[in-house]
Records
---
Amino acid sequence: MRNLLSLGATVALALIAGGIVTAETPETRMSRTAMSAAVDARLRVPDVDYRRHWVQLGSYSVLADEPTRGAKELHVVYAHPASVDAYRKTGTFPDGTILVKDVFVAKTEDLTTGTASYANVLVGRFVMVKDTGNKHAANSPLWGDGWGWAFYEGEEMRKTVTTDYQVDCLGCHEPARGTDLIYSQGYPVLKSR
Amino acid sequence: MRNLLSLGATVALALIAGGIVTAETPETRMSRTAMSAAVDARLRVPDVDYRRHWVQLGSYSVLADEPTRGAKELHVVYAHPASVDAYRKTGTFPDGTILVKDVFVAKTEDLTTGTASYANVLVGRFVMVKDTGNKHAANSPLWGDGWGWAFYEGEEMRKTVTTDYQVDCLGCHEPARGTDLIYSQGYPVLKSR
């Protein structure tokens, strides 16, 4: 193992000397992989029963392609109570804040209030983790722009399908850059009471 | 005062003797008014910051009269954490459970997810309080069918506009009689995790 690493380092140094690659050696590459796995693990869906123990920030209903059918999806966002308290005081989410967004296929019924839609089947969950100062951006393509970003399909909680937040996530959030990439206008509880 | 009450009692007894009225005396009538005020006070919007401290059971989005405009209202329901825990165990809300339903006028925007609607201006709040065994139904027209019922306009928290739950509330809830008059199909958190 030591020989292999040593050989790798030698090759890397030779390539650097030739101006072909940057100063990354197999050792630093391995270290970065481990670090990437560690920071990405922080993006998992929390084990805690957040729908019971956290604060619901707000819900977005997304209209069906055939509008008379009501909403096709309901998006419901949760944060830890301490993050909500901090936001109310400072207007920003503190470092480490976890946002979980449940994406549900909506079910629509003709009820006495009208055509009414509610959360039915879980499509998946978005997790964002606040990374003040972009400490993790260099270590993983799931981190950047002040957040970690990951989507989990269905009931999956550990293995994300996201490979690059700039490709998979940022496009939808870019219009909200003025509010730290979060659609906070839909979250009444963030306003001080 | 004692004389007036005494006179009242005498008149009441005379009327009862004549078969004209039931056994209600001014004393019991006064007592019922006080009791009614007392039980109705339990229907006020809770002073606690329930959006921060309670559990959001679920949200209903109600389609606009012109469907392409998305949702016109979002209804967001909250209960105390202990009530949620009890429901998960027993499938029913325990006596005294308070449900608060925020009714918001929705704001709709064309966002990257599509035509998306979120809570904007508070129209008012419905409060329901579970009354197992209908203990309060005889004392106030706001109680019956196993619940207390009251609506509060806008930010009002103490003075309800509801005068008779059977007239003002039951019509909309009657279709949900099979689930204790609550539209619990929209409340994913009530299912055990």
---
Amino acid sequence: MSRVIALDAMGGDDAPAVVVQGARRALEERPGLRFLLFGDRRKLEPLLASGPSEAFTVRHTEEFVPNDARPSLALRQGRNSSMRLAIEAVKSGEADAAVSAGNTGALMAMAKFVLRTLPGIDRPAIVTTLPGRNGPYVMLDLGANVDCDAEHLLQFAVMGEAYARAVLGKDRPRLALLNIGTEEIKGEGIVRKAATAIRERLPQIAYVGFVEGDDVMRGEVDVVVTDGFTGNVALKIAEGASRLYSSSLAEAFRSSVSARLGYLLARRALERVRGRLDPRRYNGAMFVGLNGVVVKSHGGTDAFGFACAITAAARLVESRTNERIIAEMRGLGGSDEAVAARVTAP
Amino acid sequence: MSRVIALDAMGGDDAPAVVVQGARRALEERPGLRFLLFGDRRKLEPLLASGPSEAFTVRHTEEFVPNDARPSLALRQGRNSSMRLAIEAVKSGEADAAVSAGNTGALMAMAKFVLRTLPGIDRPAIVTTLPGRNGPYVMLDLGANVDCDAEHLLQFAVMGEAYARAVLGKDRPRLALLNIGTEEIKGEGIVRKAATAIRERLPQIAYVGFVEGDDVMRGEVDVVVTDGFTGNVALKIAEGASRLYSSSLAEAFRSSVSARLGYLLARRALERVRGRLDPRRYNGAMFVGLNGVVVKSHGGTDAFGFACAITAAARLVESRTNERIIAEMRGLGGSDEAVAARVTAP
């Protein structure tokens, strides 16, 4: 099926070149995709001229959201920015999803303002898939909500479970709360309250309890729920630790003639590991809980990473994650109004 | 110089065997060490009989703190436990430091109760060194304090800096606060407040600003300050990510004949990397802020890991970290009383 993806062509460290190159790479895998490119025509046209361009439509705007802009300011002043227009295209139905590598805070603020949250959801969250021992797992929130109460964590559980069903293709994803001790006696009060709420009010979810940081990648859990501060730190620490390991390894392979030779012999196997753990492959965090699909790519990504973000957006549209979240939240309390009342109650 | 280390012989998953084996390994490196072994004589004597035992003195007790005990209960009921008696030996001056692989919460509660905090310090913290790109860095708090305010983070900064001077041997360790954005506009209110407090009240500290999770290992920072919940998650996520990488690598090297051969050729270089990043090498988290040196070993460690914890304890005694913290806290406000008043002020 043909999908239209709205691209914020001016967001990210190497925009717009990486955006156009990334879209072309995504097209190789999914030739049915079509792109609305929001950005500066004078910069985009030379890039499009250098290769196939039938899948692209340029929507000119000279405005864009700077990387260091305050979200509130971007929301007020960025009405004609490439980011805002890409989100508006989702709202109007012109595009099925929007992808941006720009300022996360501004993207979240605009997406929330333009698309609104799904019925029963107070706050959208940022979710992504990450590499684990037995395949990928899902973690949220990754930074949209710094201060969370138990009710927010419960909503993240609903959203994370629906996302995992769609993206991991699991029938009954196992869900856990990130804590600093697997015994119920340890950890934060809010996390303990959320555990009780999930157990009592979401019996249909396969809630397996608390997990600690080192359990997360062990492959026993499919969805890890935490607040946005902890989730963002966890995500970036995991990236940093993987990078430390791979750079130390690269150094080791250069350290002697026999190590160099060893590398050449083991190269194919090593590249498979690197490929499986490559953070770029997991590029593309979705904003869940919104009336529409918005995917945030890493600001510093390359064309391969940006292509992964586009592919993630297409997959999310196809898997109808939002429809499932709406149904789950309805199941929690009946009508949309009842759901809304319930989830915001203390 | 001869140092006496009090060992909780009954703490940890494989106690007391790992404790005795670990102490023997530590002796190989530091033959001057002497050990007070607190635990069950009937279990300890056969272990001591199987090798050299001149460095050991057994202090018999049948009581110990179970791994899943509530800290408050352990504090009330564990007065004759091996853990408590090891800490009491530090208090009485019989031992220079105590090491335990037992229940962290109970160890912290007992150490705080028996040894008390240093003048000006409200709450002790757990600190350790971790592997980074250009050598180890220091992180705290790793789980002693789940809820922290800006004032606690300021005290952690003082303690972490003193610890880094001693353990990393750096003259002016660069200190940063863990946050979810390096720009001052992002992140948690408490972290922002702590940044202001550190900048204004600790001008002698080389405070470099906020770091994100992936900056932590890049080698640009020597001390990373955060609350105990985030720190514990970060520590364990980093361990999990390293383990995921190394197990994927081991699999890759077994996946083909040429990969196996490659491994053999690169083995020496690879073992250096593994050694440098080995979490066991970084075993031994110190409780800073107490009137005495107490080191917590990982509960599931082996003899090598336990030996590293003992060595860390000996090094901390020699480097006089506590004396430096007292001096710094005095410098913050004059007399001990003024310091105490100042650091608890809003």
